[in-house]
Specification:
heterodimer, A: 462 residues, alpha/beta, 16 strands, 36% helix, B: 78 residues, mainly alpha, 4 helices
């Protein structure tokens, strides 16, 4: 008996939709999209995009029945994306890369007589070392003179959050969590400092854009009154201007709380290397095919897994550390590591229509293995989470857990306790073991040489 | 009238009236810039060699051109 289920988040675009059959993801391409699909495949655009690693590949399949046969033109099976991440989980540099990739895609499409009909940041994913479009149905035939339908969306999904991060605060990437279709331009214009009006790109694409929107909001614009068209050269001018504006935005990637963490711990070089070796040994024992490193900083220990060819997601609350990790990934052309910004005390929730368009973090698991290194004290002491609740959380996230216990005598914990009352009587290695034993079987326990820390390998109880 | 033709039925996004109007104005202006820039680039390229800098520029190269190796194949501005 085959089980067919439509992907909940795939409902906006009438060109087609995603569905699962027996847990394999397929896409139905509808008849109304046929001319555009055929053009994508036959113009050479598809091949170009695949050759440059700019879109996920797909295969046409005949063996799968269309869920809506009266509408169907074709069924395709897209390349599997292991982990879907969202713009509010991306660092500045990741969003910036996704923005430039979107513009590059659009330019490439134009060269083949097509154009991107939407510019949603959710359509891009960092897969195997490059940003790729995951929505095969995003292109449509370009008609000379037509404006770019996705212009507003590009400004809301990319330009506004990038400008806010660059000019105000890196943590404003979280605003994309509040506004599912990108940050409204009037909001962005209100929040950006006045000096952004001196930047030609931001002045026009955000400030003037927002003002024009307000001026015509709710007014019926007689289409006949809108004269003129956007020539291809003008469109290229617009795209180039967006590109230059994005490229003009930057942030500093040093001098935050965590970016220099490893220069400022009580680790000796030996402890550091030993810790890596122990984790490597745990990984080799379990041989997971996916790892989540929770509290990864700049991905130093995530790479113990990803360098072994294991797909690894590195989460950290510090957007700056994640930017650094990402820049490193691109520089070294690493293909197995995905760095993401995540506050584990308040992880990404289910969002959008009926809470189901964007998945919560836990819904995207569980994974065969998770790391929680130098993390427990932050959650237990800084955030007051009782140890049994930590054990519960990790048992929902992973099957195998590599977790480091950092005792009160460690200088990092001392620092956390320096400014507050120590109300954590259970925070001992025995209390830790007792709490985790309810949810996990402890397989190994190794103390890290030249430190006061202990590494555990645990397996979640079924 | 042209506007109606341009709003194809496939455009499932609402492009927004204000966004359309500002785009038309900007595109006109920037389109002229493209023409000018083509010639300007040729002049600048004649005098200047491209200098590589910093991590961000390296990222840009990767995102925009897929790495320096294939700049020529995709940087088709002109």
């Amino acid at each position: 008996m085959t089980r067919v289920e439509k992907e909940f988040a795939s409902f906006r675009d009438p060109s087609g939709f995603l569905f699962y059959q027996d847990d394999v993801l397929y896409r139905q391409v509808n008849q109304e999209y046929q001319p555009h699909y055929d053009r994508l495949m036959e113009s050479g655009l598809y091949q170009d995009l695949i050759d440059h690693g700019l879109m996920v590949a797909h295969e046409e399949v005949d063996s799968v029945k269309a869920p809506q046969p009266d509408l169907a033109y074709k069924i395709i099976q897209p390349q599997k994306v292991r982990f879907i991440s969202y713009p509010y989980e991306w660092s500045f540099h990741e969003l910036r890369s996704a923005a430039l990739t979107t513009l590059r895609l659009t330019r490439m499409a134009l060269d083949h007589g097509m154009i991107l009909k939407d510019a949603s940041a959710y359509n891009l994913q960092f897969v195997e070392g490059s940003w790729k479009l995951i929505d095969t149905l995003s292109f449509e035939t370009y008609e000379e003179g037509a404006p770019w339908v996705a212009y507003k969306q590009f400004c809301q999904h990319f330009l506004a959050p990038l400008a806010l991060m660059s000019y105000r605060d890196l943590r404003l990437n979280l605003m994309s969590r509040l506004f599912i279709d990108g940050i409204p331009l009037d909001v962005a214009a209100n929040l950006l400092p006045g000096k952004t009006k001196l930047n030609f790109g931001l002045m026009t694409h955000i400030h003037l854009h927002a003002r024009t929107q307000a001026r015509y909001a709710g007014k019926e614009v007689k289409r006949e009154e809108v004269k003129g068209k956007v020539s291809q050269q003008a469109l290229i001018g617009l795209l180039d201007s967006l590109r230059n504006t994005v490229k003009g935005l930057s942030v500093r990637t040093s001098g935050t709380e965590w970016a220099d963490y490893y220069d400022d711990t009580n680790y000796s070089q030996t402890a550091f290397e030993e810790k890596k070796a122990i984790i490597g040994q745990f990984v080799d024992e379990v041989q997971p095919n996916e790892v989540w490193d929770m509290g990864a900083n700049n991905g130093e220990f995530s790479r113990v897994a990803s360098d072994r060819g294991i797909f690894t997601v590195a989460f950290d609350i510090d957007a700056n550390a994640i930017s650094k990790a990402y820049i490193q990934v691109r520089k070294n052309r690493e293909t197995n590591l995905l760095p993401l910004v995540m506050d584990l005390t308040n992880p990404s929730p289910g969002l959008g229509w009926a809470h189901r368009e964007r998945q919560s973090l836990i819904e995207r698991g569980p994974v065969p293995m998770a790391f929680a290194l130098a993390l427990v004290h932050h959650l237990a002491i800084s955030n007051n989470v009782p140890l049994p609740k930590l054990a519960q959380f990790f048992s929902e996230v992973c099957e195998n857990l590599v977790i480091e216990f950092v005792p009160k005598s460690d200088s990092q914990v001392k620092r956390l306790l320096a400014s507050r009352l120590d109300i954590f009587d259970d925070y001992t290695i025995d209390g830790f073991e007792a709490a985790f034993k309810t949810k996990f079987k402890i397989l190994q326990m190794v103390s890290v040489p030249e430190s006061e820390r202990t590494l555990f390998l645990m397996r979640a109880k079924k | 009238m042209r506007f109606i033709i341009l709003m194809k039925p496939l455009a499932y996004l609402d492009p927004g009236s204000g966004s359309f109007i500002i785009q038309m104005l900007l595109a006109g202006l920037l389109g002229v810039g493209v023409g000018v820039r083509i010639y300007w680039k040729k002049i600048v390229a004649f005098f200047n060699k491209k200098k590589g800098t910093g991590a961000q520029d390296d990222l840009d190269d990767l995102d925009e051109y897929g790495g320096k190796d294939d700049i020529s194949s995709t940087d088709s501005d002109e």
